[in-house]
Amino acid sequence: MNVESVTRDGHYSFAVFHRPHIRRASLFLIAALLSLMIIVMAMTLRPESSSEALEEPVAPVVSTFTSIDCDAVGADDKYFQHVVGNMANHQPRRCVTGDRDRRHCKCESPKVSTRNPWDPEWNSVFQRNLKLIQDADQKHWDVLMLGDSLVEHWLGTNNSHFRSKATGHKAWGDIHALYQQYFQATNVTSDHERVVSGLALGIAQDGFSQLLYRLQNGELPVTFKVPILWINIGINDVQYYDCTSDGVVAGVLSVIQQLQEIRKSHDQPTRIVINSLVPLNEQVTQVNERLHCYAQQIPNVDFFDATPLLSIMEGNVSRPNPDLFADTVNLNAQGYKVWGEAIVHRVLHILEEEGL
């Protein structure tokens, strides 16, 4: 078969490639080779597993607020001395709607502790938490995590359900597997490796008022020995309960004061770590700024800024990394991997500082 032909202008061409079925086969072969090259490159560059990542030293997380002038943002000594009282006595000041529509403001006084009146299953979840803390009372723990859905999801549940009401089909099993790896592991692979033991007690949709109630009613017994209390609370007060920035700050401060009251007679030193609220909007940024400034002034209180871990920069603007979030405020499994590794390393750093 003659594969060459002469075109009208006198140039040679390969006629075989002008046949449609041969041309299609050639294009298919080229596409297959390109796909194979992409797969090989992806396997070569794939990130290491979470268990391998923990063996490598992790760079300290640089806080977004390290350069904040606390006086400039109004978070000075006088502010923290009066914020709880001001928010307790003036409901309009703690409600975003102010005097206009206080019927829809669910922002409680920072001095008031309440159950969740909108969720009929809340008490059963609270009883679950009490059982968990009772069963753990005589064990060794490095950190106790207290808070809302971000904490509860470590257990693989949402309001004690193993499937999210919001998505119906989505299970939290991958997150619970990470929880067991980071905080419940008992096997130590080498003499120098330290395993962090942690317990998570969270309830989805809780605000500071519900956490106060839980603490005042047995969720942190005075006999429970743990050197680090890690709190993650406030995002629901912003998103659902109509609290102003000052209202949220006052509520978080009341939680800290309650923790200090419970632990004041305890022989073991206790560090309280305030986890930053997830990056959501400017109001959250204001809350985080003030909590950062508060932690700078109070002994044994730290502020852990997760914002750099969970955000991406678009120009000069930071926004939540969509690859790490399941919705506007809840993390997916990859987000928990990033957050969990950072918590573990921060806990280990504190334990080393305390000589524990």
TrEMBL record:
Q: Where are the transmembrane segments?
A: 27-45
Q: Which UniProt keywords apply?
A: Membrane, Transmembrane, Transmembrane helix
**Entry keyword Transmembrane helix:** yes
One protein family per Pfam: Lipase_GDSL_2
Q: Does the keyword Membrane apply?
A: yes
State what protein this is by name. SGNH hydrolase-type esterase domain-containing protein
Report domain SGNH hydrolase-type esterase positions: 146-338
